[in-house]
Amino acid sequence: MTETLSSYDPAEDLDSPEAIAIFLTEALKTQDAAYIAHAIGVIARAQGMSNLAQETGLSREQLYRSYSKQGNPTLKSTLAVLKSLGLQLSVESSGGEETARQPAR
Question: CATH code at 71?
């Protein structure tokens, strides 16, 4: 007996603010800029690219291109998209002293 596999679209499961937050948090943990951009694109598709385009002032084509696997969105567009999605970035210390930089004198 052969198994039939179907493609999975994670956007189908991003149906609550909690699911979206978990999805993006896990993407951010990878520290892979391309993967993070793609994850934001998945969230954007789940929420509706047309509405997002209207709210951010960016074109649908620009959103699809910027947040694809090969995309390279600007910080400005990423912040606009996250704001429109009701999300915000936050930063916390990684806990290591070696990451702390001393101010220049």
Answer: 1.10.260
104 in a structural domain: no
What span, in angstroms and rounded, lies between the C-alpha atoms of 42 and 51? 14
CA dist 48 to 4, 11, 32, 60, 84, Å? 29, 10, 24, 10, 11
With respect to residue 50, please indicate whether it lies within any of the assigned structural domains.
Answer: yes
pLDDT of residue 49: 92
Question: Which pair of structure tokens corresponds to residue 10?
Answer: 């994670």
Q: Whole-angstrom Cα distance, residue 32 to residue 27?
A: 8
User: 7-61 pLDDT, tens per residue?
Assistant: 888 888 898 888 999 999 999 999 999 999 999 999 999 999 999 999 999 999 9
Nearest-angstrom CA–CA distance, 1 and 62: 44
